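WARN no homologs supplied; continuing
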Amino acid sequence: MLRVEDVHLHYGAAIALRGVSLEAREGAVTCILGRNGVGKTSLIRAVTGMHAVSSGRIEWEGEDITKLAAYDRASRGIATVPQGRDIFPLLTVRENLETGFGLLSRGQRKVPDEIFDLFPVLAKMLDRRGGDLSGGQQQQLAIARALVIRPRLLVLDEPTEGIQPSIIKDIGTIIGMLRDRGDMAIVLVEQYFDFAFELADTVAVLDRGKVVLSGQVAELVAEEVRSHIAI
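OK structure emitted
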């Protein structure tokens, strides 16, 4: 389980997170909702080690990882799919997938067959450069690349951004399948309310760097959640 406790984060003098706490459990999707600029990506950067927190504690599988570097967190099974995908445009699909091998033992340095079951389009494009793929295909590649390291915590930062509806539906199906396996905690950052609320088991709504509403989806009123994220 991931546990974030009273985390504050600054960019210079600017406060991005103010006492944020949340939990993410195996076999569940924890969704972080909020408008632009409220601290969602900052929270992801704190969890994955891309930005140091000012105070607070981040715990993963019972270990305090607050001060661990991003690489050390990845080696403990924390994988991220960043906003904007960040695939390597000049590398082939195969080479993009293989960038995760550095975290694996020699015996594990193989792209799992499951990835091509989840993303059959990638099996047909292994020798195509990442930059030549459509936006939806690049998003699928970014998720597949994260799965190469066999993560136990998968963090997705707005995976529906700029993606056509048919691919959004496919990505939602895949996230649901990964959750239902029961061996992975999933943190999903989203603005697309319907997509997020349908997948989420628990929700945390951020506003001005603070959690203003949280709970199990079954216990929350959809319209109340929507009111906090409406522009």
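The chain has one domain: 2-229.
OK
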